[in-house]
Amino acid sequence: MYSCLSLCILLIGIVSWVPYLAFNLQENFAALTMILNPIGFFLGALSESKFLALGNLLMVFSIVPVLVFVYLSKGYIRR
């Protein structure tokens, strides 16, 4: 049960980046990764699935490289 919930939260975290990266929409769906994926990490640890726990933990910290990529691609940060 915990692994299914953790997998669903991981997929929600991945899908929440799609409007921001692919469709160039400045919506706050990406903030879901900061709220849901720590819960998914905890559920992945409870289910003893290292893959799900690590995947959710990577999604928590994915906000930094994705925001840097978006800011570089939009020209907000000059190289």
TrEMBL record:
Query: Keywords assigned by UniProt?
Result: Membrane, Transmembrane, Transmembrane helix
- For whether the record's keyword set contains Membrane, the answer is yes
Kindly list the residue ranges recorded as spanning the membrane.
Answer: 51-72
**Key word Membrane present:** yes
Source organism, top-level taxon = Bacteria
The protein depicted here goes by the name Uncharacterized protein
Q: Which organism is it from?
A: Mesobacillus foraminis
